[in-house]
Amino acid sequence: MSAAAAVPGRVRVPGVVLLLAAVTFCLGTSEFMIAGLLEQIADDLDVSIPQAGLLITAFAGGMVVGAPAMAVLTLRLPTRSTLVLMTVVFAGAHVLGALAPGYGALLASRVVAAVACGGYWAVAAVHAHRASPPEAVGRSLASLVGGLTIANLVGVPGGAWLGEQYGWRAAFWVIAVVTALAAVLVAVTVRDRRPAEGVAEPTAPTRTRDLLARELGVFRTGRIWLALATTALFQASVFAAFSYFSPLLTKVAGLDPDAVPLALVGFGVGAFVGVTAGGRIADRNLFGNLLGSLVATAGSLLLLAAVASVPWAAIGAVLLVGMSAFSIAGALNARVFQIAADAPTLAASMNTAAFNIGNAAGPALGGAVIALGLGYRAPLLVGVVLAVGALATTLVVIRREGIRVRRAAPSVASVVQVPAEACCAD
């Protein structure tokens, strides 16, 4: 191995991964911009704010169901065809949303968009993993999530501005057009990758059955379920807190409501820094990244709870939460591919579903403690408990698999572990 190859930071993320990340920017903008358009949608379609908020829940539910379902249904399709199909369907769903005559049609369009989004995420993560050299896997997977952080920085405020200036339907039209253009670029750029040498391709009559059996075989051991539990617990911890940052900053920190978007931009800046640095760390030390990020997330949430009444300190703590939370993104995905190296598609889709289970469960738990009268700091403490739960599942994995967390492992693939059948068969 050359000296350049031995140092993960000197191996570049493939250009095709950056293109896929650009598409995730469109997907992320669509997913998160609804929060800034709720009042306009509610007024235009004559529904309540809580009803409009169900558009967010519907999207998360569509992702949970859609990711594994699309992974199974498209298992025999070439990678490029699947990515293009999912992107085109996503664009089409936004056309339907922009033209929706009423709430029911808009809700249905959000579910369709979510199913396509889930299918895209799973296949894009697999392709990014396969297209990347081993020394850049963590950074490549983090780059996909980086599209979401940029969506929070640019796309979501941009969508809110479009809605304010031209109506919420204008934001849907822009997403539809940009995503359709992205589909063209994906069709031109992405190349299907042949099966790895030594992996036999089943004969045509049995191909689907054999492929599905191989994908399902990953779920026969506890390793994948522990990885998925870690993802769901972690994501729930972040969204239990993040969903209530706005009232925390206005009612506890005393910020003017007009200053809240700027504070949330700070969260986005921290997220971008975290996802960039975390991907590099994951390439050197996967479990070190997992442990460090989980401890940092719990610590930053505790810090925010402690300083929430001091405006400048609260803003700084929000930035730290974004940095620590997003630093784990590449490692969570890389861990799933480490377990399901020979059959990654369904496992990747289930990890996408786990993220969205966290997206749905976290806000519900955070809202529950507020409803109990425990105040706006309480969701932060819920987040701490969930992060500690994710830390516990990670420590269980380290103990069960005899993993030694080294300070400077050369790549994700080099994390020391014993075979699954030796310690983790259920």
State the main characteristics:
mainly alpha; disordered N terminus; 0% strand
Structure description:
It is a single chain. This protein is mostly helical. The chain is 78% helix and 0% strand. The chain contains 17 helices and no strands. The chain has helices at residues 3-6, 15-45, 49-73, 79-99, 103-131, 137-166, 168-189, 207-217, 222-242, 245-252, 260-284, 286-307, 311-326, 329-339, 344-371, 378-401, 420-423. Helix 9 (222-242) runs antiparallel to helix 14 (329-339). The protein is globular and about 55 Å long. The two termini are 37 Å apart. The relative contact order is 0.14. Residues 1-9, 195-206 and 408-426 have low confidence and may be disordered.
Structure in a nutshell:
With 426 residues, the protein is mostly helical.
Category from helices, strands and their pairing: mainly alpha
Order of helices and strands: HHHHHHHHHHHHHHHHH
| Uncertain runs | 1-9, 195-206, 408-426
Mean pLDDT: 79
Distance between the termini: 37 Å
Strand content: under 5%
Which of globular, elongated, flat, extended, rod-shaped describes the shape? globular
What is the alpha-carbon Rg in Å?
Answer: 21 Å
How many DSSP H or I helices?
17
Major sheet: size, sense and barrel closure? none
